[in-house]
Amino acid sequence: MYRIGICDDDKELCSGLEEQIYQITKDLKVKADVEVWYSGEGIRKDIGNGTRLDLLFLDIELVRENGISVGKFIRGEMEDIQTHIVYISARQSYAMQLFKIQPLDFLVKPISNEQIREVLARSIRQKQSLKSCFEYRKGSGVFRIPTKDIAYFVSVDKKIRFATKDGKEEFYGKLKNIMEELSDDFMMIHQSYIVNQLYVSEYAYDCVKMSDGTVLSISKPYRKKIRGKIKQYRRAEIYGEL
User: Fold this and answer.
1) Where on the chain is 4-aspartylphosphate found, per UniProt (predicted)?
2) Rounded Cα–Cα distance for residues 86 and 123 (Å)
3) Residue by residue, what is the 3-state secondary structure of the chain?
C-alpha cells in the first residue's frame, strides 16, 4: 500500500487532487491510500503520533503552521528522511527556504494532471529502488548501504545499531520506522530487534542465532507470526522462488 498525504487549507483543491491521485495510481497499478489534512497543526500532530507516509503533497501557505515548518518537523524532530515531500504553492519564491528540507519537487498552482502523474511515478520508482538500500542519517551526513549486507538491527535507548558482513554501525532513530522501509527478507522479532532471514543460522521457539553467533530473543507477541513467516520463507527456498 502506497501511503499518500495531502495537506492544504483549500478543500476544493484537496478533493480534486485526491481524486486524481486515486485514478493515476490505479492506472499505474499501485494500491494507494490517501489521507487529507487541512492544517499544518493537524498533520504535525498525527505524524508525531506515528502516522507514516510515502509521499506528501504539502501546501506552503497554510494559515498557522506553514508547510515549511511542517517539513522541518518531519526532517528534524521526526528524523524522517524517507517521506517524499512535494511542496505546492501559488508562488515560486521559496527555493532557498526549502533547500534543507530536500523536497522531491515543487509545484506551482494550478497543478496539472500531467505534473501529478510525473511526480507520483517518480516517487514510486525511487521508493522501489530504495528498497534495495537502507538510508540513514548520522551527524550531518546521509549514508546508504545495500540491505542485502545488513544482518540485523538492535535498538538501544534512542540509538539503532546494525550489523553488516563488514562490521557494525549506529545512528539515532526509531526501530518501528525502519521496519516499514525494509524488504520482506526482514522480520521484527522483538520490539528491539529486526533480523534479516538471510543471516539467521538457527531458529528456535524463543530465539534466533545469527551468522555472527549473536543470539536474539523472539518476544512472545511475535512468535506465532515468526513461525508462519519462517515456514513460508523456507518453502520459497525449496521451490527456488527466492
Assistant:
1) 59
2) 10
3) CEEEEEECCCHHHHHHHHHHHHHHHHHCCCCEEEEEECCHHHHHHHHHCCCCCCEEEEECCCCCCCHHHHHHHHHHHCCCCCCEEEEEECCCCCHHHHHHHCCCEEEECCCCHHHHHHHHHHHHHHHHHHCCEEEEEECCEEEEEEHHHEEEEEEECCEEEEEECCEEEEEECCHHHHHCCCCCCEEEEECCEEEEHHHEEEECCCEEEECCCCEEECCHHHHHHHHHHHHHHHHHHHCCCC
Amino acid identity of residue 196, one-letter, is N
**Last residue of some domain: 130, 155, 177?**
130
Averages of pLDDT over runs of 10 residues in the chain (242 residues) are 95 97 95 96 94 95 93 91 92 76 92 96 83 79 86 93 90 85 86 92 88 93 82 55 48
| Reported pTM | 0.62
Query: Which residues constitute the domain of residue 26?
Result: 2-130
pLDDT (tens digit, 9 = 90+) per residue, 57-115?
A: 999 999 889 999 999 999 999 888 889 999 999 887 776 678 788 899 999 999 999 99
Same domain for 125 and 177? no
